[in-house]
């Protein structure tokens, strides 16, 4: 069974789309642009599959989907860019988005080094009193240190794998986990903003290229990652087909903070440029989303550090490390 190539990391995705954007602006064919792209030995197999698919006559979006290099969201956005005749703009937007996410991830990892170090120190220190008092042998001490680390590693890998699988879903009806993610105080808001930005980006591109709105709406819906939002936004096309304006159709959606979008669309439809209004709104959403992600990158390590420090304090106060217990023979005298 062939080994599945690893998914590109954020920095590699930023380099990929930056390179494709520059080559597209220069008028270089996709096949030649990919031939000059290098992302390191780790991703050679993935790039080889992408090059083979393009050489076989498929378009870039289909080739990326077939080879597994592009995510479903990237594939949908690239298809929108191809149909809109503005593929370079999509490349540039994706490159900027992934470059920003890579910087934020790097900053988050750097800020997490201290609390992770404190956690490791806590795991080493917490069973020490039992080791010194003879209640634990060396094997028991190592087990007490390594077993929690092993469990935390398994939880991290499992959570990361489940999150990636959930993001890869398409054509699946909404379930309870989708509603749960949207209801979370911070993550739910980030999910809504990211999906709304993607939807307005792709719909704006298609409308600016002259595609009829009823043809553009289903394609824009395919960029939504959350099935619940995808089903809600699918109601836009029937309303527009019934004679409603795009602004009025959006106003009927159960969408938080939609007043700015409806106002922008009213202005855009009055001037005959709804696509331009959607792209302008998408840029505002992207800026707000970046600010929220930056705040999360600042506060998440602090909360993690406080949790670890609180656990250490609780272990010291309630355990033998803070109030050592006398041996039974001495305690009875």
Automatic annotation (TrEMBL):
<protein>
    <submittedName>
        <fullName>Type II secretion system F family protein</fullName>
    </submittedName>
</protein>
<dbReference type="InterPro" id="IPR003004">
    <property type="entry name" value="GspF/PilC"/>
</dbReference>
<keyword id="KW-1003">Cell membrane</keyword>
<feature type="transmembrane region" description="Helical">
    <location>
        <begin position="303"/>
        <end position="323"/>
    </location>
</feature>
<comment type="similarity">
    <text>Belongs to the GSP F family.</text>
</comment>
<dbReference type="InterPro" id="IPR042094">
    <property type="entry name" value="T2SS_GspF_sf"/>
</dbReference>
<feature type="transmembrane region" description="Helical">
    <location>
        <begin position="112"/>
        <end position="132"/>
    </location>
</feature>
<dbReference type="GO" id="GO:0005886">
    <property type="term" value="C:plasma membrane"/>
</dbReference>
<keyword id="KW-1133">Transmembrane helix</keyword>
<feature type="domain" description="Type II secretion system protein GspF">
    <location>
        <begin position="199"/>
        <end position="310"/>
    </location>
</feature>
<dbReference type="Pfam" id="PF00482">
    <property type="entry name" value="T2SSF"/>
</dbReference>
<feature type="transmembrane region" description="Helical">
    <location>
        <begin position="138"/>
        <end position="159"/>
    </location>
</feature>
<feature type="domain" description="Type II secretion system protein GspF">
    <location>
        <begin position="18"/>
        <end position="125"/>
    </location>
</feature>
<keyword id="KW-0812">Transmembrane</keyword>
<dbReference type="InterPro" id="IPR018076">
    <property type="entry name" value="T2SS_GspF_dom"/>
</dbReference>
<keyword id="KW-0472">Membrane</keyword>
């Amino acid at each position: 069974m062939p080994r599945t190539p690893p998914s590109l990391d954020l920095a590699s995705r930023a380099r990929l789309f930056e390179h494709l954007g520059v080559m597209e602006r220069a008028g270089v064919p996709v096949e030649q642009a990919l031939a000059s792209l290098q992302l390191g030995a780790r991703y050679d197999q993935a790039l080889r599959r992408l090059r083979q698919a393009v050489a076989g006559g498929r378009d870039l979006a289909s080739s990326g989907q077939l080879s597994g290099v592009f995510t479903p969201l990237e594939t949908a956005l690239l298809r929108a860019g191809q149909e809109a005749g503005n593929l370079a703009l999509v490349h540039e937007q994706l490159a900027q988005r992934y470059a920003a996410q890579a910087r934020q991830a790097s900053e988050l990892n750097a800020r997490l080094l201290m609390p992770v170090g404190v956690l490791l120190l806590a795991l080493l220190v917490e069973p020490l009193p039992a080791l010194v008092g003879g209640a634990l042998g060396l094997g028991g001490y190592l087990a007490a240190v390594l077993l929690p680390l092993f469990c935390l590693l398994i939880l991290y890998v499992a959570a990361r794998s489940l999150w990636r699988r959930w993001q890869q879903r398409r054509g699946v009806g909404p379930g309870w986990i989708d509603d749960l993610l949207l209801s979370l105080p911070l993550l739910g808001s980030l999910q809504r903003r990211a999906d709304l930005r993607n939807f307005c980006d792709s719909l704006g591109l298609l409308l600016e290229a002259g595609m009829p709105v009823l043809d553009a709406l289903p394609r824009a819906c395919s960029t939504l990652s959350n099935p619940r939002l995808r089903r809600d936004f699918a109601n836009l096309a029937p309303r527009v087909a019934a004679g409603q304006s795009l602004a009025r159709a959006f106003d009927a959606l159960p969408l938080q903070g939609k007043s700015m979008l409806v106002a922008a669309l009213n202005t855009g439809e009055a001037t005959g440029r709804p696509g331009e209004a959607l792209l302008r709104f998408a840029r505002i959403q992207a800026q707000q989303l970046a600010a929220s992600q930056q705040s999360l990158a600042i506060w998440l390590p602090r909360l993690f550090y406080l949790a670890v420090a609180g656990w250490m304090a609780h272990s010291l106060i309630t355990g033998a490390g803070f109030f050592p217990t006398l041996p039974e023979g001495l305690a009875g005298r």
